[in-house]
Every structure is written in C-alpha cells, then in structure tokens.
Amino acid sequence: MEIGIVGLGKMGGNIARKLVAGGHTVTGYNLNSEITKILAEEIGLCPAFSLEELVRKLSPVRILWLMIPAGAPIETTINALKDLLDSGDIVIDGGNSNYKDSISRSERLSERGINFVDVGTSGGIWGLTEGYSMMIGGEKEIIDNLAPIFTTLSPEQEKGWGRVGQAGAGHFAKMIHNGIEYGLMQAYAEGFEILRAKKEFDFDLKEVTDIWLHGSVIRSWLLELISDILAGDEDLRNIEPWVADSGEGRWAVVEAMDLDVPAPVITLSLQKRIESRVEENYSAKLLAAIRNRFGGHEIKHTGLASRYGED
C-alpha cells in the first residue's frame, strides 16, 4: 500500500522502516528535516518537507499515519490536515492521544468526509524487530481495508492487532494497557528491592531473574528486560531514582474513578512514579516531625542532631 507518515522519531521512524521492508511505499515528513533525509537515504523513503508536500505526493485515497506527541502537536497537525485532505482520505493517529480527544477528532474529520482511525500502538523501540501490538478504533470497513499495513507491522499476520471498537476505543484500550504496565513494573521493582534488602542470602538478582524466566508464572518480556539491565549493573549506580509517566497512567486512574471501578494497584504505581520526582519530600519531613512530637520518636536531621528541635 501507499502511506504517508508524519513524525519520524523513534517509533515513527521504525514504523517507516518496517513498512518499507514489507513492500509498502512510504512518504515521510518530520519537523526535523535532517531525520527525513537520513531515512530517505537509509530505506528509500520518499521525503516530504511540509504537510502540503506530503499530501501532494500521495495518491487518493490518501492514508496518513501520525506518530507525534499527544496534545497540542497532534491537534495542530490534524487541524492543518483537515483543510488539505479530500473526502474519503484516512487519518491514523498511532500515538498516545487521550481517547476523548480521538472521539472529538473523528467527529470533526467526518464532517469533511475524512475517515479517522485511532491505533493504540505498543512495542516501543523493539517494534521494528519484534512487531507492534495494535489496538484499533474506527469503522470496521476502513480498518479491514488497512489490514495489509497492520499485518506488516504486527508480530504475526493475524495476531497482535485488531479492531476493538469505534473511534476512541483503540486509545482507550492502550490507556488501560499502560496502566496495567505501570502496576507490573512497580511489582517487579518492589520484589527485587526486597530480595536485595535480604543481605544474609546475598542474592544474585540476575540469577534469580533467569530462573524465573523459565517455567515461572511471572515470566514476561518485562522480566527479560530486567535480566538485561541487571547483567550490566546490578546496583544501578548510574541511574537516578526519577521515573516519568506518559500521561496514560493518569488518564486510566481518572477513568477508573469516573466509572467507580477500584484500581488500587494502578493508582499506587502512578503515585510511586510521582513520588520519585519529589526532590524535597515535605510530607515525609512533616510526618517525621509529628511522630516525634506525639511519641518522642527519633528523627533524622541533615546534621548530627537526632531529635526534633535540637541544634
């Protein structure tokens, strides 16, 4: 098939590579034109240096896959494309947009006769070699027509992708996927910290990981990644305890509250990420001070003092 890609970063660039390798004709545009030029030389991507040029170079019915950040960047791009595309053209948002925004964009584009498909795309930097998992929202007929693209990008032709519902459903499913991911990662991290704290057994964490990878009910790709990490530096000396979040975990927690669905593990894992970014943990300081005042419990100071109020 012929497809245009807007956004040729880590995932967008690899999606372009995988599609070209699969025999598709790919035209690509990126804000940083140097990246576009590099991919043109590397894989034979047809370069475009503006949205207008990208649309001009595609044959009707045009298919455009957007792989750009959620929020203002994707909103601005879709608004621009709305005036460039024709009725029947297809816009695919493969990024991490909020599902409510995807519903709204689908409705606005449909007023112009433009089809919208939201693809919750999982696979990260490994998608090029391992394939992508794709949760897809939109009209069934449109998605069926796009099947050659999805089968090329997926781990197996008939596995790893599928229509999960109407517009917005793809990004909703990806939002919950990421919330689950937060909980799994947090559980692994806590488990390994407990093992490391049991000094008397002197666990080789890499060895434990490799045992769990075979036959254990907690074996997973995340555990394989942990094995690779621990092989390099078990003490993680060069890594700061600062964990970002993409936003989807937050949306999942809000959605759970709106739906009256208890989700304590996902919620706490999000809070732990936020806690990791607190440079000065004021609440912890206040807790220590309160505990000292009502019970005389020892607290730690930045200096040599051991009790609240001492110099």
What would you note in describing this structure?
- The protein is α/β, with parallel strands linked by helices and 311 residues long.
- The longest helix is centred in the middle third of the chain and has 29 residues, at 169-197.
- The protein folds into 3 domains: 2-167, 3-Layer(aba) Sandwich (Rossmann fold); 174-276, Orthogonal Bundle (N-(1-d-carboxylethyl)-l-norvaline Dehydrogenase, domain 2); 281-311.
- Strands 3-2-1-4-5-6-7-8 form an 8-stranded mixed β-sheet, sandwiched between helices.
- The chain contains 14 helices and 8 strands.
- Helix 10 (205-212) runs antiparallel to helix 11 (221-232).
- The N and C termini lie far apart (74 Å).
- The chain is globular and about 75 Å long.
- Residues 304-311 have low confidence and may be disordered.
- Helices cover 50% and strands 13% of the residues.
How do you describe this structure in short?
The chain has helices at residues 10-21, 33-43, 51-57, 72-82, 99-110, 127-130, 140-145, 147-153, 169-197, 205-212, 221-232, 248-258, 264-276, 282-295; strands at 2-6, 25-29, 46-48, 63-66, 90-93, 115-122, 133-137, 161-165. With 311 residues, the chain is of the alpha/beta class. The model is unreliable at 304-311 (pLDDT under 50).
